[in-house]
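step: validate -> pass
step: tokenize input -> pass
step: predict -> running
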Amino acid sequence: MIVDGIRCTLVMQHPSDRVNLSPRERQIALLVARGHTNHSIASALEISAWTVSTHLRRIFAKFSVSSRAEMVAQLARLNTAELRGT
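step: predict -> pass
step: emit ->
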């Protein structure tokens, strides 16, 4: 495509292909993927359930999903590279 006389290439990328989770978000996402509840995650990490919920909302926003199941599916699609931080 040419825009204002400049040849351009448009590259489409799915939003979740460039997600950067914080170390704590990766930790929480992994625990969710293993089937833990917010309360069990909070207890294990010694944080409040409200804090877990806040992290999950941020993770959902980064992955553009609205449920735990969708988040886990996105993680599986990425072959868990996000969880390992690679």
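step: describe -> The chain is about 55% helix and 5% strand.
step: cleanup -> pass
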